[in-house]
Amino acid sequence: MLHLLYILAFTILAFIAVANLIRNLIMFSFDRERTYPTNSSRMGNQGNFGYLASRQQFIPHPELLDNAGNLIKEPLLVMRSINVDDARQQLDALYESSPGHKSENSEEA
């Protein structure tokens, strides 16, 4: 009987945790798109919103801009599939070009 009580309690906790996670993700996405006003009357208010009020304007990171300076609205991570041999060759080339790599010929001497 005690096992069923534990299963029920942890199931309820799991549902609460997942609901909280979804709610936080939604609120984070809304908060990220929000712009904050930059009028000078809020600049003097250094209470809890001192950091938000001190922001002049939203300046995105340069990697989020295209060549024309517009904000990119597409995925930034694009992965292409390669086979294992190509990946191993690329890793070997990186390893051999590293400054700490000693060639086999210098180790034999």
From TrEMBL:
InterPro entries: Phage_Syn9_Gp224. It comes from Komarekiella delphini-convector SJRDD-AB1. The keyword Membrane applies. This is DUF2973 domain-containing protein. The chain crosses the membrane at residues 6-26. Keywords: Membrane, Transmembrane, Transmembrane helix. Pfam families: DUF2973. The lineage of its organism: Bacteria, Bacillati, Cyanobacteriota, Cyanophyceae, Nostocales.
